[in-house]
Amino acid sequence: MEPHSTAPFSIGNIRFFIAFRIFFNSRFYYPVFTILFLDYGLTIEQFAVLNSVWAATIVIAEVPSGALADLLGRKQLLMITSVLMVLEMMLLSFVPLHNMSLVFWAFFANRILSGLAEAMASGADEALAYDSLMEQGDVEDWPAVLSLTMRLRSIGAVVTMALGALFYDAKAVNAILHFFGSGVQLEQQVTMRFPVYLTLALGLLSCYAVLRMRETGGRERQDRQSDSLIVKVKKALLLTLGAGRWIMVTPFALVIILFGMAFDHILRMLITMTSQFLRLVQLPEASFGLLGAAMSLVGLFIPKVAEKMVQRYTPFPNVLFLSVLPC
Fold first, then answer.
1. Which of the pair, 50 or 264, is modelled with greater confidence?
2. Assign residue 181 a region: left if phi > 0, alpha if psi is -120 to 50, beta otherwise?
3. Which domain holds residue 246?
4. pTM of the model
């Protein structure tokens, strides 16, 4: 048997990469994102400020996080990412609601931690999984790995969106309790934290998935561990500056980054404001998740289309297709 003939999904890092992607990206509060902030007592202006802080944190931390992945190791960086996710959700899970100044600063810290986690997770998990595929399998299987990951993430999104909005809605939760014979009546300020608690549990599962991963590149890892803190910081700065210079002088990389950033931020703006719009048109809050879940079902077949397009076409026609698709 050839040394690089292991089936991709029998490789431990591939399986736990997929698990990490599902646990880290499936957020129960997404279908009620905007109204969650408002029901905690924040204003729509504060919501806008907090989301700007979140976006700025991601942009600032994106390139340095790549350098840290090279220096600390991808597994270590992913563990920091998972811990940040746990901390950000703990802030929302346990912040008292009687002090609005404290609530705002808890959300402010939450947005910074969330932005750092997003930046640190970006690429480090894929790099670890890809290197594992190079060592133990066939890199030609990488599109199939990404395709399956996207489909499973879509299933995770369907489940978390449907349940998140359901458990957020006090009327729906009380109806379920009444159906099972319970006389307990829960207020909105209690049930609105349920999606947060569930996402906190996913953060803990993300930590478990990363713990089960194995770092690649044994010799390089030993070299990193032997460096002093000052040397590591110096190397991180040099790698960050080098990456920035390479991006600026490489048109293909610069265009892809700018395109991805514009596309991603437009979609995120639409998604995050959807719950407020649905509340304004007086739809039941429990239905928000069902609508989001229905849209997530598209993700079950789109990855396979994307896989075929990557295999058949060059990046330019693929980017052009994505640009005109919303029109």
1. 50
2. left
3. 8-324
4. 0.78
